[in-house]
Amino acid sequence: MTSQNPERKRIYQVWPGKNKFYCGGRLVFGPDASSLLLTICMIGGPAITFCIRMAFLIQDHHPLFHFVVLIGAILLTFMAFTFLFLTSSRDPGIIPRNKEVPEAEIPDVTTQSTEWVSNKLGSVKVPRTKDVMVNSFTVKVKFCDTCQLYRPPRAFHCSICNNCVQRFDHHCPWVGQCIALRNYPFFVCFLSCSTLLCIYVFVFSWVSMLKVHGEFYVVLADDLILGVLGLYCFVSIWFVGGLCVFHFYLICTNQTTCENFRYHYDKKENPYRKGILENVKELFFARIPPPLIKFRDWAPEEEYDVEVGSISSELMSSGKPDSKAGVR
Ligand SMILES: [Zn+2]
Ligand SMILES: [Zn+2]
């Protein structure tokens, strides 16, 4: 590989999706990453205010209690921000596009399909859907016109990022990124830490006010900052905590948000469902697969203005590259 040509571009510089890349393509954000600032303010603002209030109270009232509460709040805030960063700055599982449908992926003419579509160059007609076997269930996968590929099971084309993404859950506007195969565990950890932080600030605002000011009915008037923080966290708990509970339900039943909204597995069998323990293990303890695209690699010059990459047909076997399944 030579690098004499100063005009040479890396894959992230010619990537046709709408992602924003930083640090030379090492950090991959969604197109609406700026909404992260609002999320950071909504978590960081109250958390820092709470920490400052606790730091002031250390000097005058119950120093050990307020010191311990302060350390706990700093730790939870730090963890929430770390998981937020890991969620929003990682490649969520973007699938490389094809210039043309690889021949190996064109199903034979006996495939039952009512709708056929032309590929980008118009040279081949391919069925809109094809059947794939997953854990002895037949799953229909759709052809993506933009990415020129049959989406692997559980993958979906995110219209905001303009990419097909593996095990797509949803596009989160608060995080400004697709939530999918490679960042879902971090997203759930972020939600859990945010919920814990809300409960923590809510509970210890009240405990601190009661410890310092005594009577329950006069505390709000005596410490307005902690009163407002307690109220803010009480409202937030319902939103963040609700989302957290919903995602734990999805994890236990091995569904994505997208599948839950579209397919309603309660009415038909979910091919990915295992035991609750297995489902949880799969999400939190399985190795996160490496990205399919090395955004820092040099892009082939002929592809500077359009698509890059080619999907390997073995990906088709399942939503996850390592699970056992075959193409029908
Ligand atoms: Zn696509
Ligand atoms: Zn997206």
UniProtKB/TrEMBL annotation:
Matching entries from InterPro entries are given as: Palmitoyltrfase_DHHC (IPR001594), PFA4/ZDH16/20/ERF2-like (IPR039859)
Which catalysed reactions does the entry list for this protein?
L-cysteinyl-[protein] + hexadecanoyl-CoA = S-hexadecanoyl-L-cysteinyl-[protein] + CoA
Its topology with respect to the membrane?
A: Multi-pass membrane protein
An example GO BP is: protein targeting to membrane
Where's the Palmitoyltransferase DHHC domain? 142-262
* The EC number(s) this enzyme carries: 2.3.1.225
Which molecular-function annotations from GO does this UniProt entry contain? protein-cysteine S-palmitoyltransferase activity
Top enzyme class: transferase
Q: Which UniProt keywords apply?
A: Acyltransferase, Membrane, Transferase, Transmembrane, Transmembrane helix
What protein is this chain from? Answer: S-acyltransferase
**Where located?**
Endomembrane system
Q: Domain comment?
A: The DHHC domain is required for palmitoyltransferase activity.
The record's GO CC annotations read: endoplasmic reticulum; Golgi apparatus
| Similarity section | Belongs to the DHHC palmitoyltransferase family.
Instruction: From the record, give the transmembrane residue ranges.
Output: 36-58, 64-87, 186-209, 229-252
Query: Organism source for this protein?
Result: Capsella rubella
